Each structure stands twice: as C-alpha cells, then as structure tokens.
Amino acid sequence: MSSLPTFIKLSNEKTTLIFDCQGRMPSLMYYGAVLNDATTPAMLGILSTRQEAKCAPVIEPPISLVPTHGEGVTGSPGLQVHGSKDQWSAGFELTAIEQDGLSVVFKASDNNRELTLITKVTLDADTSVVSYQSTVQNDGSDKVNVNFLNAASIPLSSHVDTIRSFEGRWSSEFVTSDQEWNFGSYVRENRRGKTSHDTFPGLITFPKGTTEQQGECYGFHLGASANHSIRADLMADGRRYVQFGELLFPGEVSLAEGESYTSPVLYSGYASEGLSLLSQEFHNYIRANILTHSAESKPRPVHYNTWEGIYFDHDVDTLKTLADKVAPLGIERFVLDDGWFKGRRHDHAGLGDWFVDEAIYPDGLDPLIDHVTGLGMEFGIWFEPEMVNPDSDLFRAHPEWALQTNNNPHVPFRHQYVLDLTNPEVVEYLYKVITDILTAYPKISYIKWDMNRDVNHPGNLDGQPAMHGQMQALYELIDRVKAARPGIEIESCCSGGGRVDLGILPHTDRFWTSDSNDALDRLYIQRGFSFFFPSEVMGAHVGPRDCHITGRNLSIELRSAVAMFGHMGIEMDPRELTDHEQETLKEAIALYKAHRHITHGGDLFRMDDDGLNVNFGYVSKDKSEALFAYNSVKETTRTTPNKFQFVGLDPNKSYTLSRVWPNTLKEYSPSILQKTDGQVFTGEALMRFGMQLPVLFPQTSLIYSVKAV
Ligand code: GLA
User: How far apart are CA 553 and CA 547, in angstroms?
Assistant: First the structure.
C-alpha cells in the first residue's frame, strides 16, 4: 500500500479530476474546472477535512468509486454480491494503480473473500468527457452472484443543486424537466429490456442559474441498451453523489472461479460555461471516438423511408413510382421499411421469416434495387431481428427460441415475442438469414435495425434471467453482420427513440429519433436528444402534411426546416405532394446538403427555452460560417417578439447575414427581413446587440446563414 500514490490527477485543457487514494479505496475528490499546478491535491485533501459530527461516525465511510459494505457504506452500495460464504460483505484494499497518460486503472482485492475489483477511468485528451467502467472478478472456487456493480459513484459538490432529468413516452422522447436535488434518493430504474422511451439513462446536474451559455454543469450517461439503474442521492450528512449501473435480475450474473462481470461504461462531461458547451463536449467526443465516419469523410445522405408512405402496402410497381418521385427531389438513399418479408402483410405475422416474400416480390428484390440504384440512390432495408411473431414459420418450428418464464403468460405487445439471443442457435439463425439477404443483394448498403416491444419475461431456456446476456449478444451480432459486409451502415431504431444510447452507438451509425414526424413535437424531442448526441446521428424526416401520429396539419416549410437540422430524410407518400411542396422539398434538401458540413461537424448553440420558441445555431469550428434557426411555436405575448441573439460567433469577425429559409413568407407589413438581407454585421453586433425579430405567424421557421467576409 505505502508505495501507491496518494492522489491521482487527470487533467487536460477542459477539466481536472483528482482521485484521493489515501484510504482503502479511491474516491473522486475533485471534478470540475481546470486547476493549475500550484493547487496541489494535498491542499484539497486538507480543505476537505470533515470532523466527527454528533451521533455520527468518527470518519464517514467514503463515497468511493465503488462503495462497498466492507467500507461500511450507508448510502447505496456500488457493489452488491453474495455467495455461500460472506462475500456480501466484501471490502477491498487497493493493490495497484496503473496510470497511462489520461487513463488510470485502480485495482483492488479482498483476499479473504477472493474477489478482485477494478475500475478504469479515462479522461479524453480533447474534451471534458470521462469514461468509467468497473469489473468484479471471482478468484475463489465458490460461485458468486452479482446483484449490482456500478460503473462508478461520483460525488459532487453541494452547490450543484439542480437535476435535469429525461422522461417521455413513445413518440415523445427526451422530455426534460428540472428539479431541485432533494434529500434522499432520486432513482430511475428501467426494466423494459431496451433503453426505453421514458427512462433515458442520463441526467444533467448544475447549480441553480446555469443557462445554455453560462454556468457550470455536469452530464452523465450510461452506455447501456437494456436495463439500468441510475440515482442521485443527497445523504443526511450533506454529501451528494450520482451512481450509474446496469440493472440485473436476481441470479442474472453468477460468476464461477476466474469469471468476471464488467459494467457498462458511464460517460461524464463537464462544462464551465453553460449547457450548450456541455453538449459540444459530448458531440466532439462522440465524433472523435465513436463514429466511424465524419461529415467530411462521408456526408450523411438524404433518406427516403417508405414507412409513413405506404406502410405494409408493398408492390414493386408502386415502390418504383415512389423512387421515381423522390429521386428528383435530391434523395440519396431509399430505405425499404417493414413489409418486404414472408407473410408480413400486417403486424400480426412474419417476424422471424427473413426471406423475401415471393407473393409480393416474384422476382426477388433485384428489380426494385436495380431501379433505385439506377436512379442514383443507395438502397437500405428494414429488419427487426430480435423479434418473432407467433404467426411465423420460425416460431412454429422453434417456440422454445422465445424468451419466456415458466407458467407465466406472455405480456401481449404488438403481436410479437422476443427471441433469446443467449441461445447460440438463435444467433446463428439470425446471422445466416440476415447475411443471406446481404449476399443475395450486394447493393444493400444500409440496415434499419428495429426493436418494437418491451422484454417483460427475459427468461432463457435454462429458466435464467438473460437480459445482460441478451444485450451483449445483440452487440456481437450487429458487429458480425457489419464484419460480413464491411462499410454497411446500421440504424438503431426502437419504435422511434427507444434505443438511443452510447452502448449501441459504437456498433451502429445513427438513431431513429422518434416515430413522431410532427415538426412541432420534433423541435422539443430533437432539443432533448441534442444534450448528449450530435445531429448527424439524429434521424429527422419530413413527414406527411397531416401528421399520422398527432393529426396536426403543418406547412411543408416548417416540416422541412425542422428535419434539416438532423440527418435529414423524407417519409410520406410523394404522390400526394403538390407542386409547391415538391419545389419546397427540393430547395430544403439542397439547403441541407449545402450546410451539412456545419450541422454535422460544427458546434451546437441552443438558446434558452422561453416557452414560445425553439432557437439554436450551428457554428463551424473556425467560426467562419453558421446556420441559425428561429422556430416560433407559440404566438408572442407582446405585439412584437424579442430580439434574436446570435451566439457562438467571433465578435471580431464581420459576417454577411442571409435569410435562407423560407423563400416566401406571409407578413403583416414590411419588416426587418427586407433590411438585413445580404448586409454585413460584426459578430459583436449580432451577438451582443442581436436582431429584432419580425412579427410572424406562429409555427414559422426562419433560417439564417451567417458567413464571415
Ligand atoms: C417502428 C419504427 C418505425 C417503423 C415501424 C415498422 O415503429 O419506429 O419507423 O419502422 O416500426 O413496423
């Protein structure tokens, strides 16, 4: 012990972390703004001295990275294990600290109970994003059951008193709400077997008063795609911490000698100047470390998705007509959604039988694929591999392949069950049918990988809970499919945004953000999504004139303006488009293409939510060009709206301001729109003084391009 360092410091230009290793186990003593070298860890150690309080332990058990019963923790333990002996009370001693640049591995062991505990922490070189992952290993001959292992427990200072949480439902993902960090436990547990629409594994925390452009903030996100448990606790002794880990069912992880369990990765980010900066840290991290291609190496092609256009009504001639209609609009990728495989005429049948339906496609998919690629578009196809309909050949042959628990009826959910991916036979079947399709149709270059129900009974053939294994097997299957067809891109979809997380993103390329294509709903869904994820992975489609989910009738100008700021696509029956709508879509797609290097590679600046508008901008890294959006959702309470405050520009540069959307606007009287167009303003004027907004109809979007002269 004595030879181990007493403190570990990880620091870059964005943040500093200091771990206190003086006790039995390491704990995070400092995480926040960059500290200079004159501030020694020892100083902070002295400054954090706590005394014995009345009726309190002489020294409080620490909130270590993995707090244990062995340390006498009275908060939430980060490790919960049990076995035939006293493994439940494991208490560890640090045995090694291995630092390699900005990465440190803390190794600890409990020799009496024959357990090893490892936490790896890595600070990214260029951003404030830190990743944490813990492992517990059984070194004894008796089995050890793991009930919980946190990725990490992170103490936070008491001035961080507000929690921004994420909730939602199908078609309304990423709803944020702020609440005071109260005494006790703020706990969110997800048992849906998918990341879920309602309990995204993340939260943001900050001192009251932090805004989009000012104040400190911390973001936390667990990269897990099944069940999770996240909490933010304020203890009676005044200390507070967050704790993130996978939620395991009883008996789900049982370790034989030499076996180990590793938690998902917890990602944390820090910003000293506002929530937009925090998002930029995550976006930059994801771009550099997780995505396999960039806005420069492969711009995100504009999609046409057949779902809201024709649903299950597949017919080769109709699909060719759709392709003919959308190609001239500028569409670059045609995605054939649900309905192409055997028996899939509706959502009651077919899942599992991944063979082209000869009744609908008598000559296979080639005639359609050749037609689509002949028009210059890529071809993508929909799968929902983890699912099976009871009405399918697969289920009739293998009812035992569905996850289930004895004597408990399935919970009905979209007429489908979940396949057991912990059964290697199931995985081999899925790998074969998917790759057979890819082999038969080498021009398929994109898969929309869907997952449309909860996993209510995750019991495998042995009667054991299998959600953890299911998640690992899913990642492996996706990787194998990708390896079988290098370069293929995969979209993670789950009835919209039910599987959006950094566990699955390293294996996929983009998300379907929400089944709601309602542009007004989308403004808020996309805003919530943007806290952690960059816009190039945010699937965003222009939906039908009358939104199929909300019934709202929204202009093509608004629908286009909203979709343009994600990975753009369209999803409707193009035969219904009026001439004006076609023209407008064409212009919108051209505008998206001209600016996707900024929206997919630049910095996002959100403006604070005023309850009336959703405003934001994307600024190129060199601050030479930017695109700003003003979306008026509700009518202003005053006769004239406020100013639009541009953000993120260089105050010392001069910029040409051009309104690039929409081309025609209904106005009450001549306005500033005519005066500003094409004029040059300093960055300082645009940011500090701002621009008076015109009086517009609500539900109007204005997009401004700003270019340095
Ligand atoms: C889910 C997806 C949709 C569509 C349908 C097909 O709901 O989110 O985009 O693919 O399944 O059944």
Answer: 6
